Amino acid sequence: MDDDPAAGGNVHATMRVALWFVTAVLLVGLSLRPVLEQRYRYHWLAVAAFVALACVTAAGGGWVLRRRPLPGAVTAAGTAVTLAAGYCATSALTAGEHFGAADWSFGLVEWYLLLLLLDRVPLLLAALGTHLALSVGLFLAAGQPDRVEIGAVGIVVLGSATVQLSVVVIARALARSTRRTSAAIADRDRMQTQLLLAEQWERGQRNDFAGQLGLTLPLLAELADGLADPRESETRRRCALAATQLRRLFAENDESPDPLVHEITACIDIAERRGVVVSLAVSGTAVAVPTAVRHELTGPVVAALSVARNRARVSVLRTTEEVRVAVVTDAGAAGTAPPGSMHVEVECGSYGQDGRMEARWRRASS
After folding, report:
1. Membrane-spanning regions, if any (predicted)?
2. What are phi and psi of 250, to 5 degrees?
């Protein structure tokens, strides 16, 4: 997570904007005057170096100010032009002017290299080393410096290198800190999302149980108050219906490779405990059926098995286009079929002396 390139890219983009303004201010505010004073052996060479660096500033600003990464070709060309401009400006100096006020290009070139290679630290260090070596080499080639001059040059080089390396260290530290912060925020967002999903699932489960218990609690209240007689067939049917619905609801939360058949089997188990002989026929391979659709498909099974007296037959047919669940019981054409919905079509009729219910879900329309 600490290597998120987007977070580091944002830091480099922000620092590049600041570095672009630094180079622009230094180029115009501190470098233009020495160029105009004509204190050079080859004044035209110093002017050419100044113009080249101005072109790098103008060309790089198109990407930097829009906070876009510099293309590789632009970076390579800009680095080459910057090093060449630094070499030309230093070569144009007269003896004794190296690392002084007239040597405006020494520190300026380093800022340009930072601007171009901030996110490419190995190349940046190589470019800074090359620029330093060229500057020191031209200084030594201009004459025989004494110890005082060498000491002064060393202080200038050390101070300049310290500033540039400090910028690199700060940029890397900010990028690392930003990546860690972004990773922490992403982890927090993931945890919040998981928490919201868990809460939503819990509310859904609670609502489902409340919906099912809404049918059971009145029945229990009537039994407790003596308003419902357990010896009556209607009361027994209501009890069987409530028990089957609750058993199906519990089965919805089980892990199963075939949830639809698992829920139907749970409904059958309640009927068999009442002494009903139930046969189950399943054809076709298991298909993914949403929970809400499974609830509607098993509705006829719950309704039919709750009124079955001695025997029942449940069949499940699954194809690539639809899923059918049919129930045939010896209870006759009882009008207890649940209504259809926008997902499932429910049919109720007779099959000889038996009652038949069928729920159909067309997968193409789901």
Report:
1. 17-36, 42-65, 72-93, 123-144, 150-171
2. -65, -40
Residue by residue, DSSP assigns 141-199 as: HT----HHHHHHHHHHHHHHHHHHHHHHHHHHHHHHHHHHHHHHHHHHHHHHHHHHHHH
**Euclidean distance between CA atoms 309 and 83, whole angstroms:** 97
3-class SS at 18?
A: helix
Please tell me the CATH code under which domain 229-365 is placed: 3.30.565.10
Predicted structure pTM score: 0.48
Indicate the SS3 state at residue 306.
Answer: helix
Domain ranges of the chain: 5-186, 229-365
Torsion of CA 295, 296, 301, 304, to 10 degrees: 130
List of residues 6+ apart from 361 with CB closer than 8 A: 289, 293, 296, 297, 322, 323, 324, 343, 344, 345
Is residue 77 within 8 Å of residue 52, measured between CB atoms?
A: no
Helix, coil or strand: residue 296: helix
Report the amino acid identity of residue 16.
Answer: R
Strands 344-351 and 311-318: unpaired
Is 254 in a helix, a strand, or coil? coil
Rounded to an integer, what distance in angstroms lies between the CA atom of residue 204 and that of residue 199? 9
299 alpha carbon, distance to own chain's centre: 39
